[in-house]
Amino acid sequence: MEDDHCNSLSHQDSDLDLSFTSSTSIATTSARSSLTRSSLCLSFNDSTRISSVSTTTSSTQIPNINPRPHRNSDSDWSAVRAATNLSSDGRLHLHHLKLVRHVGSGNLGRVFLCRLRDSDHANFALKVVDNNLLTSKKLLQVQTEARILSSLDHPFLPTLYAHMEASHYTCFLIDYCSNGDLHSLMKKQPNYRFPIDSVRFFAAEVLVAIEYLHSIGIVYRDLKPENVLIRSDGHIMLSDFDLCFSADVVPKLDNRIIRNVTRKTHRNRFGLSGRYSRRRGETERMPEFVAEPTTAFSRACVGTHEYLAPELITGDGHGNGVDWWAFGVLIYELLYGTTPFRGSSKESTLRNITSETVRFDDENTRGMAEAKDLIEKLLVKDPLGRLGCARGATDIKRHPFFAGIKWPLIRMYRPPEVRGLTVKKSSKAHVGHVGGWPLYQKKRRSLLKGLSCILLKYKGAKR
Do 170 and 216 share a structural domain? Predict the structure, then answer.
């Protein structure tokens, strides 16, 4: 009866056609599945169309259109707003979309590249979840992901453009990342390894994304290269939030004591302020914002086995520290092409995580000493001594591995030039690569030097 109703409405409303999909089992594209993940079958019948007859969101209380402030002027949002303005009820429905191709499958559903029917320049990803195929536990994960996606507002995290309920399907319209994921990109590199400056770039952006999640009380628990997607502009976007859990977080403002910072102003012959000198023995207090869910606690064993923290494996309970452990594993894998505790089987890998220490090769190229030191501090088995567990990303940002990065300008850094990464040209100004001095600083210094020469010539001519 339900199928007949859907079919009759599909002719009227020209709903989303999924007839090219089949009822075959599709495993996740990742070579390393999460412990809670298994082969997923999305049974779209060959003659069935999804109808948007029901758009109720009472189960998750997520609005149909979910505008985000930092992306409000984005061209993709403009396309969504144009479609909703033409809609009779001011909502976005599945019949406003047209599928281009199947992108991949995950823990909960399939992802399709799609476009709005009246706009070919805007690409989106449509995540389709068949609720009839999920257990009650996974249905809760769908609700968790919907709730988290609706709360995110960050350049390195997905934008939920629309949330739609159709029959027994739940659909999320989010950003499409044309460069795939970091794991696939890593496989295109020589020896499956990124140059250290590229690792610094990707790690810095992942760090900022995790910092934001922790600041709103979300523990991610599924960090791995497969879940780090790369946008068309070369910047990252974390994905898959079904394994997250929420906790209370109390933001605070700490005073960091900095020594030897008392400054004395020198003036040049033109009366302009010049360089500063420092006096020894003086200190200065600099306020630092810290928002880390240090009281987070869970006993659920979820995640990808090569990225599990020791406390998660033992089952004694875990908190925010599991994300900082996974962050250390991620940096290691990007540098060496493999995870640090990988064994011949899943059991041996888990045993290595709880008992072995991290080992490195003898490579001593520029920056490797700092990278190894950071990894060692992140892969401390006791979460109480692990870097980041007490004060989060605030402490990790100060590590020498990230020295020189201007964190407020992190979105403006130019992506690394690596094999397989196609970066769409942007009209936005960049400030160089994370491994080098920002270009705007060089231009500013050259400009000031040129102005000084002009002033000197002008003063000499008057004499």
Answer: no
Residue 236's nearest CA partner among 392, 423, 419 is 423
What's the domain range around 41? 2-175
Question: Is 278 domain-assigned?
Answer: yes
Catalytic member of 15, 76, 130, 222: 222
3-state secondary structure the chain: CHHHHHHHHHHHHCCCECCCCCCCEECCCCCCCECCCCCEECCCCCCCECCCCCCCCCCCCCCCECCCHHHCCCHHHHHHHHHHHHCCCCCCCHHHEEEEEEEEECCCCEEEEEEECCEEEEEEEEEEEEHHHCCHHHHHHHHHHHHHHHHCCCCCCCCCCEEEEECCEEEEEEECCCCCEHHHHHCCCHHHCCCHHHHHHHHHHHHHHHHHHHHCCEECCCCCHHHEEECCCCCEEECCCCCCEECCCCCEEEEEEEECCEEEEEECCCCCEEEEEEECCCEEEEEEEECCCCCCCECCCCCEHHHCCHHHHHCCCECCHHHHHHHHHHHHHHHHCCCCCCCCCHHHHHHHHHHCCCCCCCCCCCCHHHHHHHHHHHCCCCHHHCCCCCCCHHHHHCCHHHCCCCHHHHHHCCCCCCCCCCCCCCCCCCCCCCCCCCHHHHHHHHHHHHHHHHHHHHHHHHC
309, 314, 317, 322 alpha-carbon torsion, rounded to 10°:
0
Q: What is the CATH number of the domain that holds 337?
A: 1.10.510.10
Q: Clarify whether residues 207 and 103 are in a common domain.
A: no
The whole-angstrom separation of Cα 249 and Cα 40 is 35
Looking at the DSSP bridge assignments, the partners of residue 181 are 229
Residue 140: phi and psi, rounded to 5, are -65, -35
Mean pLDDT by 10 residues, the chain (463 residues): 41 44 38 45 30 38 68 80 86 91 91 90 94 93 94 94 91 95 97 96 98 98 98 96 95 79 52 53 80 96 96 95 98 97 97 96 88 98 97 96 95 95 74 54 53 62 58
Assess whether 270 and 316 both reside in one domain: no
Residues 190 and 153 in one domain: no
| 27 & 170 share domain | yes
Residue 460 lies in a domain: no
Question: Is residue 118 annotated as part of the catalytic site, yes or no?
Answer: no
Q: What is the pTM of this model?
A: 0.79
